[in-house]
Amino acid sequence: MPTITLNIPEEIVENYQTREALTQAISEDIVANEYQKGNLSIRQSAKILGLTYEEFMVNFLGDRKISFINGTHSELEEEYQQEEAWLDKILRNKI
User: What is the pTM of this model?
Assistant: First the structure.
C-alpha cells in the first residue's frame, strides 16, 4: 500500500485521540467518496476497510446516510420500468 504525507491542520488533528484513529477516519472518508463516485464497488470498499459486505452496507453506509443504490437517474428509471413490467406480468398471470 502506498504511503503519502499530508499536512493536516492542528484543529483537525486534535479531534482524534490517536494517529491510528485519524488515519482510519481519512481512509474511511476516501473509500466513501470513491464509492459514491462509482470507482469502488460495495465488495471492494468492504474489503479495503476490513468489513463484511453486510457491515459495509448496513453500518458504514447506513451510519453515513449514503445510499447503497448507486446509479444515475436514467439508470434507476430504467430499473424501475423493468420492475414495473415484471410485476404487471406476475399479477396478470395470477388473475
Answer: 0.69
Residue type at 46 in one-letter notation: A
The answer to whether position 23 is within a domain reads yes
Question: CB under 8 Å to 1, separation ≥6 — which residues?
Answer: none
CA dist., res. 57 & res. 1, Å (int): 24
Residue 13: which residues within 8 A CB-CB, separation 6 or more? Answer: 22
Q: Compute the distance between CA of residue 87 and CA of residue 26 in angstroms, rounded to an integer.
A: 43
Q: Which structural domain range is residue 58 located in?
A: 10-69
- Number of domains observed in the structure of the chain: 1
Cell of 78: 430504467
Q: What is the pLDDT of residues 45-81, one digit of tens each?
A: 999 999 999 999 889 999 999 887 766 677 667 778 8
